[in-house]
Design goal:
It is a single chain. By secondary structure, the protein is mainly β. The strands form 4 sheets. Strands 13, 14, 15, 16, 17, 18, 19, 20, 21, 22, 23, 24, 26 and 27 form a 14-stranded mixed sheet that branches. The chain has an 8-stranded antiparallel sheet with strand order 9-5-6-7-11-3-2-25, with no helix packed on it. About 0% of the residues lie in helices and about 50% in strands.
């Protein structure tokens, strides 16, 4: 188990342990870090062991290749993806040093922003396989934000829209995410990815969104119920759940939507 130090996480406005469909993120064994710019500041210190191009799933908006950077941190080997390396084997990097420019890889869904993928492996492990990283724990507090499912659209893209609620009460001071239970923050893609996370949860309990049950958490892992989310009764692909120390607001995923900035939205949970 590797604990991500709060001083490292504080360098990134947002992060997510579970908001991915790939097995590397199962059980919170990898984290996606979202820098402020397209430059990728290293979240680890150590010697670069290798950099290589890796084939990515074909997508019309993405290049054919992604990149893998391996860094020996001492106890573990860090695996970093989605960065075209400006470093090479033998280089020594410190936390915050530039690794290169982030790339929009074919591993990304169209609504996902550029980010650094980070996981850790024992030295003797296979560093090429997607699965097999050790579990990550957070060295920072993440506070839950209560939300009734309503808000006003403040930003849109072709595949998503962001609301003004729930708002972060103290941007820059601590990380926050949408509440799923008292003291618990939801993470992941609800319900468009197979499962999600319940940060701060212990044991087993139901988790809710806007007052409706949406799944069951067993420790940090969540199994979503068979539900559909709707915005003003329009079916959504889902809700992107993450942790942010910056301004917050629910991110609704809906390719080809007709929503505009200023629209009032009410989210509803429909059981299938």
């Amino acid at each position: 188990m590797v604990t991500l130090d709060s001083s490292v996480l504080a360098r990134y406005p947002r992060f997510s342990l579970y908001n991915s469909p790939y097995t590397a993120h199962d059980h919170g064994c990898a984290i996606d870090l979202y820098p402020e710019t397209n430059d990728a500041p290293s979240p680890v210190a150590g010697e670069v062991l290798d950099t290589r191009a890796v084939r990515a799933p074909p997508k019309p908006y993405a290049p054919e290749h992604d990149y893998l950077i391996l860094v020996d941190t001492g106890e573990y080997v860090a695996r970093l993806l989605h960065v075209e390396p400006a470093v090479e084997a033998g280089d020594v990097v410190d936390v915050g040093d530039s690794l290169g420019e982030m790339v929009r890889a074919g591993f990304f869904a169209p609504w996902v922003s550029n980010h650094i993928h980070l996981g850790f492996r024992p030295h003797e492990a296979n560093h090429s396989r997607a699965a097999g990283s050790v579990e990550l724990t957070l060295g920072c507090e993440v506070r839950p934000l209560s939300w009734d499912g309503t808000g006003t659209v403040v930003e849109t893209g072709e595949t998503w829209l962001r609301l003004d609620e729930p708002a972060h009460p103290a941007p820059g001071e601590w990380f926050a995410g949408i509440e799923g239970a008292p003291g618990v923050v939801l993470d992941g893609g609800l319900p468009h990815y197979d499962g999600g996370g319940a940060l701060g949860n212990r044991g087993e309990q139901g988790v809710t969104l806007a007052g409706e049950r949406v799944g069951v958490a067993t420790d940090r892992d969540v199994t979503w119920d068979d539900i559909e989310l709707r915005a003003n009764n329009v079916p959504l692909t889902g809700l992107s759940l993450y942790c942010s120390q910056d301004t917050f607001g629910a991110k609704l995923v809906l390719p080809g939507h007709d929503f505009s900035v200023g629209d009032d939205v009410t989210l509803s949970v429909v059981r299938q």
